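Give me structure tokens for this 180-residue protein.
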Amino acid sequence: MWTMIEPFKALEKAEIDALIEAPVLITILVGAADGLLDREERTWTERLMRTRTYTKPKQLQEYYRVVSHNFLGKVDEAMLQLPSDAETRSIILAERLALLNPILSKLDAQTAAHLYKGFRRLAVEAAEASGGFLRFGAVNPQEAKWVKLPMLLEFIMPAEANEPGDSGDYDDSDDGGDGD
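Here you go.
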């Protein structure tokens, strides 16, 4: 199933598996930073992953189809394999996510930038999914520590990837977010 993801053709299976697992790990890292991955966080991130299967960039739609398949089941399975202590779990997840840096570096710059932006957007969405008033002011201090995914190197969209008249500053999540 993962072999059909065109931008990943040059990667090894373990590297592709790590990229496919990344949204699950990000959801747990940020959503459960306060100790609990609540229903709103679970529902919102699962919906976001499904939405990305038909939004731009088109070259990553298959990636998100694979990621979104049984997404909450993958989250539950990963949670069972991780420590219940939020601080210990967060350190382990951050270390695992940091392993994505050399993998993202192997991809073409545009794909790496799209993935990085999608990972950051997922982190923000997981943090804002519950609490606050209409999801405003919902990021608690534990989530704030991780929401910018400090363990990941920043991958920026190359200027030549922008279409004429396109600022390149689109919102790839199609979720009405601020495009962060």
